[in-house]
Amino acid sequence: MAATLKDVAARAGVSRSAVSRTFTDGASVSAKMRHKVERAARELGYRPNALASSLTTGRTKLIGLVSNNFRNPIFLEVFDRFTRALQDCGLRPLLVNLTDETDPEQSVRMLQQYSVDGVVVASSTLPPAFADAFRDAGVPVVHAFGRSVGAPPVHVVGIDNVVCGRMAAQTLVARGYTRVGFLGGPDSATSTQDRLVGFLAQLDRHAGVIVSQSFARAYSFDAGRDEMLRLLDHGPAEAYFCGDDVLSIGALSAIQSRGLSAPEHVGIIGLNDMEMSGWQNIDLTTIRQPIAQIVTTAVDVMQKMLAGDDRAPVARVFDCEIVERGTLRALPARVS
Amino acid sequence: MAATLKDVAARAGVSRSAVSRTFTDGASVSAKMRHKVERAARELGYRPNALASSLTTGRTKLIGLVSNNFRNPIFLEVFDRFTRALQDCGLRPLLVNLTDETDPEQSVRMLQQYSVDGVVVASSTLPPAFADAFRDAGVPVVHAFGRSVGAPPVHVVGIDNVVCGRMAAQTLVARGYTRVGFLGGPDSATSTQDRLVGFLAQLDRHAGVIVSQSFARAYSFDAGRDEMLRLLDHGPAEAYFCGDDVLSIGALSAIQSRGLSAPEHVGIIGLNDMEMSGWQNIDLTTIRQPIAQIVTTAVDVMQKMLAGDDRAPVARVFDCEIVERGTLRALPARVS
DNA sequence: CCCGAATTTGCAACCGGTTGCACGCATCGC
DNA sequence: GCGATGCGTGCAACCGGTTGCAAATTCGGG
């Protein structure tokens, strides 16, 4: 169907190499030749076959975009930004949905079969071993929203969840809460673990504060709601740090459906600052994660790796900030 | 790096064709040969290169998944389902984000360069001409959530938006509303146009009902909120059919921030039944669109086309249903 | 106008597979 | 024991490009 290099060469009356060279920049072609070829190409509607050329060049410009989080609305924004950023530098995202996949090996193989140039893992819940599998296979990989440790096995871009846990604790203490709770996502997620560690560490400094902890079965509305309903039935804390905004909103829903409200009866602070957290009928106090920066940086790192930069993996950590809205009680008046 | 066909052949002491044949099913290979090859392959960790084989077979198993809707949370579910369904039949979604792309030609070219086997367009806002461009390029295409007309230029899977408009109108009339409004998405979207047509047509049968119309600049929370704020300032209708749930939730937020509430002051009915419409703090009455069926069917149609079935394009239309929640006044008591 | 250097072009091999064809060999019937 | 049949295998050409190398062309300078 589609015109090939050979067709164009025949029509222009030149060699195939000449055609190839006109379409690869950096190759030496005379102006006259270029004209002839371009005209023939235009007439035939020729487009070079990216896959065929990848055979010899070894680059496909295909990037595996791997995630297991297709329930949390925040990830729509993540996908939006990743696809745009990748497209902007001429890369094509090959999306891999790991939701019900158990075996990392299999995805690695699949992506290898398609000779992806690199892999972006976008998830805060996948075990680090997963990203490692790609590195072991010799594929450049960057883990966005992964756990940031000192000397990570692969490039990581994200936030420091331990610090976030501390911030949350600090915020609750400053507002005078003395019985606080951690309502995390699944406790197998590194993000959950780290946030809990930070939360507890910070509270350790405040002897008078009582702390409890529990975990929702997933980062989802329903899971948050169910877990909060359970907590409400067993004497809840005064305020909770929820693992994530969507969990928080589920929790708020539980609170409302018991005829209670935030912050009057229970305080809530979330994490992510997803768009709907700012909606007036939700108005969630939360910790903002700089998604845009994380994505941009991850793509940037990927580009550098593709360009041949193979420095040792580094964790790039971005700061979070508290977004004050309406689900925590006000700061006590300053005594002057 | 990776072992190639040649390496395996050398190690097993057989010809390259023999190796190729062991990995393509339907080819004739003796059991003994198969064993030798498989062992050599295992030892070398050989995986056939999907792209190389696509050169001769003409199939890449790559499917372009094209959308311009990365703001509406409902589309996360759409992507989740599409990627899973495609993966389940051995196809790989190559995601194309058209958010700020103006020229359809360009995406067509790009996807052609990657020799995708087919294209799924998932959008209710892209003009039909867009999907047509792929058909014209000889690429199998199915348009999910597209406009369903009698003899469509390409396969379409979705709902009948005219019927939805009628349902909404019918629902409002049945509840005794006499001043109703249509708060649509961007009026360039076919879905908006069709819903409006149906809405008006149905209301035409009810002489006493006054109807107004306006359009939000996008299918997004902010757009819905802004438009509703504007309406509230100019004497709103008693109830609105909003183009979409996310728009509806924006509208609800506007209503609340004016100290009003639904359904007491203004009634709202949405469309989509996205997950959060059911959340207690939103509780939106809406029209449910059977997303799962639409996606499954779209992938099914695609598979058939890939298998060589090139019957004339058909529009596959699914029914919607009203989901009664709390943003419309109750049905008047039946007079018996 | 001639010569050497620089640039442009074509040839041919190669990337990693697939596949039509012909040949070798075992099997079968008679 | 013979030829017909058929399966299994290897050869070689091909898919659509790229690229090292050498030949051909262009160019500049004297």
Provide an overview of this structure.
The structure is a homodimer of 336-residue chains. Chain A is of the alpha/beta class. Chain A is 43% helix and 17% strand. Chain A contains 12 helices and 12 strands. A 6-stranded parallel beta sheet of chain A has the order 2-1-3-4-5-11, sandwiched between helices. In chain A, strands 7-6-8-9-10-12 form a 6-stranded mixed beta sheet, with helices on both faces. In chain A, α9 (190-204) links the parallel β6 (179-184) and β7. In chain A, α1 (5-12) packs across α2 (16-23), α1 (5-12) packs across α3 (31-44) and α5 (74-88) runs parallel beside α12 (291-306). The first copy, chain A, is elongated and about 85 Å long. Chain A binds a DNA duplex (30 and 30 nucleotides) through α2 and α4.
How would the global form of chain A be characterised? elongated
> Helix fraction of chain A?
40-55%
Radius of gyration of chain A: 26 Å
**DSSP helical segment count of chain A:** 12
The termini of chain A sit apart by 81 Å
Largest interface: A-B, 53 and 53 residues
Mean of pLDDT of chain A: 93
User: How are strands sequenced across the largest beta sheet of chain A?
Assistant: 2-1-3-4-5-11
What about the largest sheet of chain A?
6 strands, parallel
Oligomerization state of this entry?
Answer: homodimer
The counted number of beta strands of chain A is 12
Structural class of chain A: alpha/beta
Q: What percent strand of chain A? A: 15-25%
Order of helices and strands of chain A: HHHHEHEHEHEEHEHEHEHEEHEE
Indicate the low-confidence ranges of chain A by residue numbers: none
